[in-house]
């Protein structure tokens, strides 16, 4: 049963990513991202800031802004002050050692977003040759670490990671639909 859930989430995520790569060239990312952020945050200034920071990081590091947004939604629901029981910090829920390795301050919101963007870009590069599910594996690595993904030959069968990949895929699909409408 878990294998089928894993396979289903991988297929959903890969289809969402593939659909997004060819069909959203001339769209209004700002409005779709802002609308998504504003579901969780009623402060217009903060919503605008988060949206612009996502678009900046996306442009600067050449990572899909929909993917950054989908990850941030899954990680923190766009909460500047989010922390996890294991010590992850901020909007992109960076672990202190990951932030240190990337060279960002995880308590600084812009550096947190940039750090998360760099980290997912690194994972996308690391798993780019893994076939049709490489983006799914990169997202799993954002959650469980690249070593776990490599050890398991794909998304590890950890309940948290499987659910995380499903959540990011759902967030991606929802935002893609919003932007395309």
Could you please describe the fold and organization of this structure?
The chain has helices at 2-23, 29-38, 44-61, 65-76, 96-102, 109-126, 134-144, 146-152, 159-180. The chain has 181 residues and is mainly alpha-helical. The chain has a single domain, classed as Orthogonal Bundle (Lysozyme). Helix 2 packs parallel to helix 4, helix 7 (134-144) crosses helix 8 and helix 7 (134-144) crosses helix 9. The longest helix has 22 residues, at 2-23.
SS-derived structural category: mainly alpha
Query: Quick one: CATH class?
Result: Mainly Alpha
Helix content: over 70%
CATH topology category name: Lysozyme
In the CATH hierarchy, the architecture is: Orthogonal Bundle
Coarse shape: globular
The number of domains:
1
Residue-averaged pLDDT: 90
Q: Sheet with the most strands?
A: none
Q: Give the helix tally.
A: 9
Distance, first to last CA: 35 Å
H/E order of the elements?
HHHHHHHHH
| Radius of gyration of CA atoms, rounded to a whole number | 15 Å
Q: Uncertain regions: pLDDT < 50 for 5+ in a row?
A: 1-12, 14-26
Strand content: under 5%
